[in-house]
């Protein structure tokens, strides 16, 4: 049920990103422009340096994914220098919330808050309701970590909103430990090659 993402999955990936983009719930209408979320958090991983995408497909197309990059620093440079300048002008119908997200996306240090020396990779996991409770999240995480380990990556990190109780409970169960955060979110990380991050 896990397979590499292809160009034909782009629309499904964008849809999954939107339908899970409000702390795990449907973000339709939240930002005014419903295409904005995917251009910040999903689609660039199919194109950028070190990027990868794996999808959970139950037979009718992708209903979940793990997306990420093995090199966050290089990916951020590409995102700020090439991706965002190209796609930002297409998002003209954002509301106040969307404008705040676009401003955040334009920050050239947005992805550089974590300890990139120990955890240079990062990833995003999202599942539609029909894929939840089937082991898909765990399977996608393990597949992504195996892919990154094969690339020789030392560790991986990800962020979760404090408002997403499901994510906060899930990541420690799949080998991630909290390594940072603030009032809005938590940064989790996992060493690769079998060594779990110490809590």
UniProtKB/TrEMBL annotation:
Keyword Transferase annotated: yes
N-acetyltransferase domain boundaries: 63-193
Q: Which residues cross the membrane?
A: none
Q: Which GO MF terms does the UniProt record name?
A: acyltransferase activity, transferring groups other than amino-acyl groups
InterPro entries in alphabetical order: Acyl_CoA_acyltransferase, Glycosyl_Hydrolase_84, GNAT_dom
Pfam families, A to Z: Acetyltransf_1
Its keywords, alphabetically, are: Transferase
Q: Does the keyword Transferase apply?
A: yes
Q: What is this protein called?
A: Acetyltransferase (GNAT) family protein
Q: Which organism is it from?
A: Demequina mangrovi
Lineage runs: Bacteria, Bacillati, Actinomycetota, Actinomycetes, Micrococcales
């Amino acid at each position: 049920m896990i397979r590499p993402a292809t160009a034909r999955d782009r629309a499904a990936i964008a849809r999954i990103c939107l339908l899970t983009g409000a702390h795990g719930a449907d973000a339709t209408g939240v930002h005014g422009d419903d295409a904005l979320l995917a251009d910040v958090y999903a689609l660039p991983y199919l194109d950028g340096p070190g990027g990868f995408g794996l999808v959970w497909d139950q037979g009718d197309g992708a209903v979940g994914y793990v997306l990420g990059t093995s090199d966050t620093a290089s990916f951020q440079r590409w995102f700020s220098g090439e991706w965002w300048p190209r796609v930002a002008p297409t998002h003209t119908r954002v509301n106040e919330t969307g404008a705040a997200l676009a401003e955040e996306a334009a920050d050239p240090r947005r992805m550089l808050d974590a300890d990139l020396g120990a955890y240079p990779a990062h990833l995003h996991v999202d599942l539609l309701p029909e894929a939840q409770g089937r082991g898909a999240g765990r399977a996608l995480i393990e597949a992504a970590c195996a892919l990154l380990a094969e690339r020789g990556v030392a560790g991986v990190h990800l962020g979760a909103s404090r408002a997403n109780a499901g994510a906060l409970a899930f990541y420690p169960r799949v080998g991630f430990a909290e390594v940072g955060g603030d009032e809005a979110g938590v940064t989790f990380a996992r060493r690769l090659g079998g060594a779990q991050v110490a809590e």
